[in-house]
Design brief:
heterodimer, A: mainly alpha, MetI-like fold, 10 helices, B: alpha/beta, Rossmann fold, six-stranded mixed sheet, three-stranded antiparallel sheet, 37% helix
């Protein structure tokens, strides 16, 4: 917190959050609303602590799935973009299908995947489908944004294709790739949750989304809220981590990572 | 043909163009036909209006583009060493890699030639010394001023110890004071290193100040309109910039350049 303005920017949303919680608690108590209709924030917190053994295990499962989907999306997106960059024919042949995969709602694909694949695999594939496209399109954009004169310089000094890729194209595309990864992190969590929900009661899953579906059937609304809270926190942490990695990698040279006055 | 051919036929000539022309795919003829000989160690300026093809001529000599007709020869003397390169190129923009330090930017040509790091380090230090940037070796390009970035670009061109230095309006985007200083530094480097320099510019004053020979090009398609030998004795310095002799050369070259612009306006 460098200046009073930074402090205000940090404190305002916190104050709004606290006010919201107090209002929520007051309404639930004031009107005597039953927990299976709307649990109070305090009850949600209590449930979170009480159910921690189950919920933490589910959180672990969901995070692992998300991570696997994210890694698959990162590798798939970057490798596909590199292949497209090397061969225009490949790009023309395959890019439309990448778009089709992206614009078809994953919630509609998930039940199909669950028919043909093991549930665990299907969940990862769902996470991959929603998350790989931003990586692919951002990396493609980055690879095509290489400075023309720098490319000429590499040509002048007889750089091989591999050297051009490693020393010019990938570093130039890095800010774009990191931007894509930041979006992909949140999306792979969404993909994992969607697949778990689609599997629903038929599934043998144990992730957080499965807990939400299961608690819904049992009218255990406080646990639904607790699981939702954990999912939300997981999303925030994933985004924060990726933003931090991006900042650390770019802070010395890229405009996006520089302060306003430097 | 791909790029400039090797030749040792004419010992005194470093660059030789014969009947070189460039026509774009759209059918627009950008350049030529052009005949040009540049002596080894000579400082030649190509002067002309924007779009006259002078940058195209430079790219053809560098092998960054192929001529539609004619031949481009760049000769070299001595055995081709590892990490040495016949041609150094300085672009209009500094064209530095923003993710690499000054040292790593200068290292690039040696790295691409797979020169061992220990051999490379000494040469990088020497090149940075030549342009007066030794103490900024670990800075990133964004931390440097425009003039300093241009010096890094120059060091990178010099680090391979090229025979021929090609410069494409390198100082056009700089303020006047910085440009004058870089002009002087370039001249003293040229005097000590004995490089062949082909310098593209649209500034009459800059071309006369720097060159032994000024070649005035016509409007598109660019051809040689006139040639001037700037016979003022070396070394030139700030006194030369304010001398009557300098003013006379500038007037003469400006007069020769006028038809190029008139033709352009009439077209």
């Amino acid at each position: 917190m460098k200046s009073p303005q930074d402090l205000v920017r940090f404190l305002l949303p916190v104050a709004v959050f606290a006010a919201g919680l107090v209002l929520w608690e007051a309404i639930v108590r004031g009107y005597g609303i039953q927990p299976y209709v709307l649990p109070s924030p305090l009850l949600v917190l209590k449930t979170l602590v009480a159910d921690w053994p189950i919920l933490s295990q589910s959180l672990g499962v969901t995070l692992l799935t998300t991570l696997e989907g994210f890694v698959a999306a990162a590798i798939g997106g970057i490798v596909l973009a590199l292949l497209f960059n090397q061969s225009k024919w490949l790009e023309y042949s395959l890019f439309p299908y990448a778009v089709v995969l992206q614009v078809t709602p994953v919630i509609a694909i998930a039940p199909l995947l669950l028919i043909y694949l093991q549930q665990q695999t299907a969940v990862i594939v769902c996470a991959w489908i929603v998350a790989f496209f931003p990586v692919l399109s951002n990396t493609t954009l980055g690879l095509n944004s290489v400075d023309r004169n720098l490319a000429g310089l590499f040509q002048l000094y007889g750089a091989s294709q591999l050297q051009t890729l490693l020393f010019l194209k990938l570093p130039a595309a890095l800010p774009y790739i990191l931007g894509g990864l930041r979006i992909a992190g949140g999306l792979s969590l969404i993909g994992a949750v969607v697949a778990e929900i689609a599997a629903g009661s038929a599934g043998a899953g144990s992730g957080l989304a499965f807990r939400i579906a299961e608690s819904g059937y049992r009218l255990n609304i406080p646990r639904m809220f607790a699981a939702l809270l954990l999912l939300s926190l997981a999303g925030i942490v994933i985004y924060g981590l990726l933003a931090l990695v991006s900042h650390l990698l770019l802070r010395r040279w890229h405009e996006s990572a520089l302060g306003k006055d430097s | 043909m791909a790029g400039p051919a090797l030749s040792g036929s004419d010992a005194a000539s470093a660059v030789r163009l014969r009947g070189v022309s460039k026509t774009y795919d759209s059918g627009v003829r950008a350049l030529g036909p052009l005949d040009l000989d540049v002596r080894r160690g000579e400082f030649v300026s190509l002067l002309g209006p924007s779009g006259c093809g002078k940058s195209t001529a430079l790219r053809l000599i560098a092998g960054l583009a192929t001529p539609s007709a004619g031949t481009v020869e760049v000769s070299h003397h001595g055995a081709e060493q590892r990490g040495s390169h016949r041609i150094g190129f300085v672009f209009q923009e500094p064209t530095l890699m923003p993710w690499a330090t000054v040292r790593d930017n200068v290292r690039l040509p040696l790295k691409l030639a797979r020169l061992p790091a220990t051999d490379a380090d000494a040469r990088i230090d020497a090149a940075l010394d030549q342009v007066g940037l030794a103490e900024f070796a670990d800075a990133y390009p964004r931390e440097l001023s425009g003039g300093m970035k241009m010096r890094v670009s120059l060091a990178r061109a010099l680090v391979t110890d090229p025979d021929v230095l090609l410069m494409d309006e390198p100082f056009a985007a700089l303020d006047e004071i910085t440009r004058f200083r870089l002009n002087n530094d370039l001249l003293s480097l040229w005097r000590t290193l004995h490089k062949t320099v082909i310098f593209v510019t649209h500034s009459v004053f800059e071309s006369v100040y720097l060159s032994e020979r000024v070649i005035v090009m016509t409007a598109r398609p660019g051809r040689i309109g006139a040639e001037f030998r700037i016979s003022s004795p070396e070394p030139r310095g700030e006194e030369f910039r304010t001398s009557a002799e300098y003013a006379a050369f500038c007037r003469e070259v400006s007069n020769a350049l006028a038809p190029s612009y008139a033709g352009q306006a009439g077209a």
